[in-house]
Write a structure and sequence with these properties.
The complex is a heterotrimer.
Chain A: E1 13-22, E2 25-35, E3 40-44, H1 51-58, E4 66-71, E5 74-75, H2 81-86, E6 89-93, H3 104-108, E7 115-116, E8 119-120, H4 122-133, H5 151-164, E9 169-173, H6 181-196, E10 200-204, H7 208-214, E11 217-222, E12 225-231, H8 237-245, E13 270-277, E14 281-288, E15 293-298, H9 304-312, E16 319-324, E17 327-329, H10 334-339, E18 342-345, H11 349-353, H12 360-372, H13 380-393, H14 410-422, E19 428-432, H15 440-455, E20 459-463, H16 467-473, E21 476-481, E22 484-490, H17 496-504, H18 521-525
Parallel strand pairs in A: 3-10, 3-11, 6-9, 9-10, 15-20, 15-21, 18-19, 19-20
Antiparallel strand pairs in A: 1-2, 1-4, 4-5, 7-8, 11-12, 13-14, 13-16, 16-17, 21-22
Helix pairs in contact in A: 5-6, 8-17, 12-13, 12-14
Chain B: H1 12-28, E1 36-38, E2 41-43, H2 45-68, H3 76-92, H4 97-120, H5 126-145, E3 149-151, H6 155-162, E4 164-165, E5 168-169, H7 170-187, H8 191-200, H9 202-207, H10 212-238, E6 240-242, H11 250-260, H12 272-292, H13 299-314, H14 316-319
Antiparallel strand pairs in B: 1-2, 3-6, 4-5
Helix pairs in contact in B: 1-12, 2-7, 2-10, 2-11, 2-12, 3-4, 3-5, 3-10, 4-5, 4-10, 6-10, 7-10, 8-10, 11-12, 12-13
Chain C: H1 2-25, E1 31-36, H2 42-58, E2 61-66, H3 71-84, E3 88-91, H4 100-108, E4 113-116, E5 130-133, H5 136-150, E6 155-161, H6 167-182, E7 186-193, H7 198-211, E8 220-223, H8 226-238, E9 248-253, H9 256-263, E10 269-272, H10 278-291, E11 298-300, E12 305-306, H11 308-318
Parallel strand pairs in C: 1-2, 1-3, 3-4, 4-5, 5-11, 6-7, 6-8, 8-9, 9-10
Antiparallel strand pairs in C: 10-12
The chains are: A alpha/beta, B mainly alpha, C alpha/beta.
Chain lengths: 526, 347, 322
């Protein structure tokens, strides 16, 4: 397709057969994507689906390996963000990539300031800045530094800048991730206005409610491939979730009958009431009993990780109450949690889990040593015993205990982290995506380990995207959507279909309304 | 856990460089290794290297641990000036030696506490946090001395600088003591492990329950104490506190000593002895240049050249060419695995 | 220290009292504005103190402005002196350049300007009346001449230089070298920088002693300032030698501590860099005001040599000025 032959009916943006690989890993594999004029188009997918690779290829951060990208029928291949801007493709990220210490006006006209006699014409810049922001209902002091305004306002300013630079395609990459309900409403109003002006918007989000509220079409990617494109109105939620999670519902996992839903009457080990944190996860109730595996299921960004981080004190809850053995506890940080006998293997092993340069031995004894305090060192001999024991027990593949843990494979790092907590003999072990990025063999071992620990009477709280896994080891599943605990399945209710259905359910307040403390972050903030 | 970085061959560049510099000095000046007794005190160029290297070695001991936590303490030179100013002024005002020492060390401790709180609690970047005291500290010292060189005659305080213990000059004795105490403190307890863990990955360490703020404050406090001792030595040595010049730019020498000693500015593994070796390499060069009779204009260039060579010897690219025996211990040599004792870890 | 404060406060109060009386009695009292650099060293503080004392002696009303090492503060101070209509302005310039425009303002207001302690660079020398400074080359010469005379022109000298590249270090070396060149028996056998500090002076001297056969080959040490000499004296003592006898010590500046060392026989001579820069300036100013006689463009302060015989008295005289 060339510019001269472009039919007037050509879509605003047509991507065909787009491919991109990194070091042999196919991040995008023959993906098609079509954006029309005056359309808000959701780009959805779980971890590793290829959303961000697609966006970065579109904005010139990456160069594609294969396929075509046509803007209004004209093929383009931007080599950088600036060139993409010239080609009328504007991008706004969750973390606004403008300069917080420059004024609003300077940010709006950065690199294209109105000039007079070789100098920046500040007066004209201010006047034009006010004019540019006026349609968005923003009457703010354009001379104030950008950083003084809320993220929501900054995002609208970034959108205004992109649109003013004659963007026809506007990419919004998770713009709502840190906004409250009111701010989201304002943003959506802006998006609808831009749609009515013929601008095409690519909207990346993890919130299904928002997709159904504002988007015209949906494209779903999974593992670098196109799953499908649908009109929003014609795609039931259940089907959407199934597309994202990659399963044909009728063929969904064989159901294991675990007996009727029973109410466990034993006193909980740990109990959380109205526990939550503004802009992170809505208040929830959660009981965890010894010897049970409570699983948290939901899409990426649904609040699963946020929930377990609150439980371990990695983030501090700003409401609600936590009790252990019936006594109210304070959870100011991980140290409090460790003292209570909690352990936590985080999702991002490299950043928050392992201490890379230190040896496997040192990584394994770290939590135990931290709990004992620095004045009571674990003797070297004992350290070696502990390390060797867990290396054998968990079959950690390492030539010796003195090897820096960063040289181990992901699965073995994960097992070493498990060993770190098992060495402390925890009462509650929290695992966030314990099997992610791990080879098949280690995967099965870790699942067997979870079952074993549970049988030994340890309580486990597990976050996982692998629904079959959850169904296999868990008799209680809490389902989250849009940062809210929306359902709890027990015993015989636990099945992949039920989980998917709960994720896709359209009655967002059905469960949440039972908890009196529920309120949106926005209400609390006011 | 070892006192220095693991693996004997890893230490080769440092010891090799020290020996090379000492030999070069000997070639330039044949009497370099000659040592005699002078007024009951060892006397000779080699002793000068140890004696003059003591303040930087002391700073390097404290700095090593700060750098191991991925920090840096730019204020040590200023802390030296403060500690010296307090010592000289109080001695001049007739205070007894124990009171003077206590006050000077307390000042170093307070300075370290200040740095530590800025870094650990307010989470200011270490280079900025300690820059504050680097600038203000010299001013504080000048306030104490009222802008003059405060001299004293007390032989008790002067003993710290020019006295000797069993013929060994006091600065050398104090440095050895500081090294031993520090090594004991970090390696006989779990503090060393925690310092390294925090330096490699603060988030992971906090997640494992390590009390990261306390670890950070502790290393800055210790660094402040080491600087205070160095300040006492310098002041006692010249029998006067020179607030303008005491410890000036020594923070950079201390950082250099640590880096030459092989501790990474990115934190993690640290070697106290090697940092002291680093300080001695620097001082051996200084002394060598003074003995050589080179024009003073060449001093800095010669120094830079030698340091470049030492650092190149440590560069990861070059160490690939050096033999590296494994200091590792195969599994199972210690004991057959014992059955897990309880609850958590049963198969 | 507190006693010193009380005394100076009392003298200030007394001066004020006398001063007030003076205003009523004499109709014309000279008012001088003095823009001082700051108080970065003991010598600088002494210069300020001496300027006050010398002003009191002559019944001059001295207004001092501390620039804290910043030229813009000095320019502000000069402007404010012009606005106040003082009779003369003294400047101890922090840098050599950038004075032309503000000095023009003073000239237009017909206020004579005197530079103290340092020169400036300007194309128009009429912008200031005179400059009172020492001659640092001459200081080196005086030290050298004393040593040549003392040793009969035969001496192996080790030299402790000031900070490499600084102008006093360059000039003090130059003046001393001139004398060495004139005396074939004199030789500088070692020279190194001691950075003008005691600690460095001591360290360098230690190495000199070792390099020269335990100090036996050294006849004298010449230090570019007294502080380095004080450090060198300690090094000599710790090597088991007698400073002032086994190795002669000559230096420059004339700070109290070197007089103390001389009175104890451990140093032999110092060339004074007088902190009294203001005194000659006042005299030139008074003469100018009286009969309009313009002073020479450069008033060179005396580079007086002091030796142990007067050291004790000089130390007593100085210890409060510093």
């Amino acid at each position: 397709m060339t510019a001269s032959t472009a039919p007037p009916s050509a879509p605003l943006l047509a991507i065909r057969g787009l491919s991109k690989a990194f070091l042999g890993v196919q991040a995008l594999d023959g993906v098609d994507f079509t954006l029309r004029h005056g359309e808000i188009h959701a780009l959805l997918g779980e971890n590793g689906a290829g959303k961000s690779t697609l966006i970065k290829t579109l904005t010139g951060v990456y160069q594609r390996d294969g396929g075509t990208v046509a803007l209004e029928g004209r093929e383009i291949a931007p080599r950088g963000v600036e060139e993409a801007q010239r080609l009328h493709i504007g991008t706004v990220y969750q973390e606004v990539n403008l300069l917080p210490n420059l004024s609003v006006a300077e940010n709006l006209f950065l690199g294209r300031q109105p000039m007079r006699w070789g100098l920046v014409d500040r007066g004209a810049m201010r006047r034009r800045a006010r004019a540019v922001l006026q349609p968005y209902g923003l009457s703010i002091d354009v001379t104030a530094p950008l950083g003084r305004f809320s993220v929501a306002t900054q995002q609208i300013i970034a959108i205004a800048r992109a649109v003013d630079m004659s963007a026809k395609v506007l990419i919004l990459d998770e713009p709502t991730a840190s906004l409250d309900a009111q701010e989201v409403a304002v943003l959506f109003k802006v998006m609808r206005t831009l749609r009515s002006r013929g601008i095409g918007i690519v909207f990346v989000t993890h919130f299904l409610d928002q997709v159904y509220e504002v988007c015209d079409s949906i494209t779903v990617l999974r593992n670098g491939r196109l799953v499908g494109e649908r009109r929003t109105a014609e795609l039931p939620r259940l089907d959407l979730v199934a597309m994202m999670l990659g399963r044909e519902l009728e063929a969904a996992a064989h159901r294991i009958d675990l007996g009727p839903a029973e109410v466990d009457s034993r006193p909980p080990l740990a109990s959380f009431k109205g526990f939550g944190k503004a802009r992170s996860v809505e208040p929830f109730d959660l009981d965890i009993r010894p010897g049970e595996v409570v699983a948290l299921a939901g899409l990426l960004g649904s609040g699963r990780t946020e929930t377990v981080r609150l439980v371990f004190g990695m983030d501090r809850a700003d409401r609600g109450e936590a009790t252990v053995d019936g006594r109210t506890i304070r959870l100011k940080g991980p140290r409090d949690a460790v003292r209570l006998g909690f352990g936590f293997c985080p999702e991002d092993r490299k950043k928050e889990g392992i201490v890379g340069e230190l040896s496997v031995r040192e990584n394994i004894i770290l939590a135990l040593q931290a709990r004992q305090g620095w004045l009571k060192p674990i003797p070297r001999r004992r350290q070696e015993e502990i390390a060797d024991r867990f290396i054998r027990l968990l079959d950690i593949r390492t030539p010796d205990a003195e090897r820096p843990i960063q040289l181990l494979s992901g699965g073995n790092q994960q097992k070493a982290l498990l060993a770190r907590w098992l060495a402390t003999e925890p009462r509650l072990l929290i695992l966030d995506e314990p099997t992610r990025g791990i080879d098949v063999g280690a995967h099965a071992e870790i699942i067997r380990l979870i079952e074993r620990l549970c049988a030994d009477g340890m309580a486990l709280l597990v976050v996982s995207s692998e629904l079959e896994e959850i169904v296999a080891y868990s008799r209680r599943v809490v389902v989250l959507r849009d940062r809210r605990h929306v359902a709890e399945l027990r015993g015989g209710e636990v099945s992949v279909e039920r989980i998917v259905a709960a994720i896709a359910s359209e009655t967002p307040h059905a469960i949440a309304s039972e908890t009196p403390a529920t309120g949106s972050g926005a209400e609390v903030r006011q | 856990m070892t006192l220095s970085a693991p693996g004997p061959s890893r230490n080769l560049p440092q010891y090799g460089a020290l020996i090379a510099v000492l030999l070069a000095n000997w070639l330039l000046f044949p009497d370099f290794f000659a040592i005699r007794l002078q007024d009951g005190r060892l006397f000779g160029s080699l002793i000068d290297v140890l004696n003059r290297g003591a303040p930087v070695a002391l700073l390097a001991i404290g700095m090593t641990m700060v750098i191991a936590t991925r920090g840096v303490d730019l204020s040590v030179g200023a802390v030296m000036a403060i500690s010296g100013a307090i010592a000289a002024t109080m001695t001049g005002a007739g205070w007894s030696l124990p009171a003077v020492l206590a006050a000077s060390l307390a000042a170093g401790l307070l300075c370290g506490l200040w740095n530590g709180l800025l870094v650990a609690v307010l989470r200011i970047q270490p280079i900025i946090a300690t820059l504050i005291l680097m600038v203000a500290g010299r001013g504080i010292a000048q306030l104490v001395t009222e802008g003059q060189i405060v001299t004293f005659t007390s032989p008790a305080l002067a003993f710290i600088g020019s006295g000797s213990f069993l013929t060994v000059p006091m600065p050398v004795v104090l440095t050895i003591v500081a090294l031993a105490v520090t090594a004991l403190l970090v390696r006989a307890t779990a503090l060393g492990l925690m310092i390294e863990a925090v330096g490699v990955n603060r988030l992971s360490s906090a997640g494992a329950g390590v009390n990261t703020p306390v670890v950070l404050v502790a290393v800055y406090v210790w660094c402040g104490l080491c600087a205070a001792v160095a300040g006492l030595i310098v002041t006692a040595d010249i029998r006067g506190a020179d607030a303008n010049n005491a410890g000036l730019w020594l923070e950079l020498d201390a950082i250099l000593a640590v880096v030459v000693g092989g501790t990474s500015l990115l934190g993690g593994r640290f070697g106290l002895v090697l940092s002291v070796v680093g300080a001695l390499i620097i001082q051996a060069m200084n002394t060598g240049i003074l003995l050589s009779g080179f024009k003073p204009e060449f001093n800095l260039i010669v120094k830079a050249g030698v340091l470049l060579v030492v650092l190149l010897l440590q560069s990861p690219t070059l160490t690939l060419f050096l033999p590296r025996p494994k200091g590792a211990r195969p599994i199972g040599t210690v004991k057959p695995p014992v059955a897990p004792t309880s609850g958590g870890a049963k198969p | 220290m507190s006693r010193k404060w009380v005394i100076s406060a009392a003298t200030a109060a007394a001066a004020l009292f006398i001063g007030l009386g003076g205003v009523q009695a004499a109709d014309k009292k000279l008012v001088v504005g003095f823009s001082q650099i700051g108080s970065e060293s003991g010598w600088r503080a002494a210069e300020t103190k001496t300027a006050k004392a010398e002003a009191d002696k002559r019944g001059i009303d001295l207004k001092i402005s501390d620039a804290q090492q910043k030229q813009e503060n000095q320019i502000k101070a000069v402007r404010s002196f012009v606005a106040q209509g003082v009779d003369a302005i003294f400047i101890a310039p922090v840098v050599a350049t950038g004075w032309d425009s503000v000095l023009k303002e003073a000239k237009e207001a017909k206020i004579p300007v005197v530079l103290l302690d340092r020169q400036i660079e300007t194309k128009d020398p009429s912008l200031y009346m005179t400059a009172v400074t020492s001659d640092t080359v001459h200081e080196g010469r005086v030290a050298g001449e004393w040593l040549a005379k003392q040793t009969g022109g035969k001496c192996a000298v080790v030299e402790l230089q000031g900070t490499v590249g600084s102008s006093p270090a360059i000039n003090r070396k130059k003046g001393f070298d001139e004398i060495v060149a004139k005396n074939p028996g004199m030789k500088i056998i070692r020279t190194q920088s001691g950075d003008f500090t005691r600690a460095k002076g001591k360290e360098v001297m230690e190495s000199f002693i070792k390099a020269e056969n335990g100090g036996k080959g050294i006849c004298a040490v010449y230090a570019h300032n007294d502080d380095m000499a004080v450090g060198a004296i300690q090094a000599i003592k710790e090597a088991g030698l007698k400073p002032g006898k086994d190795i002669l010590v000559v230096s420059i500046d004339g700070v109290p501590d070197i007089f103390k060392a001389m009175s104890e026989g451990e140093a032999n001579a110092t060339v004074e860099l007088t902190p009294n820069m203001a005194g000659p300036a006042y005299d030139a100013l008074i003469a100018f005001k009286k009969d309009g006689k313009a002073p020479p463009k450069w008033i060179q302060t005396e580079s007086a040599l002091f030796t142990p015989d007067t050291a004790k008295a000089e130390y007593e005289r100085r210890k409060d000025a510093y």
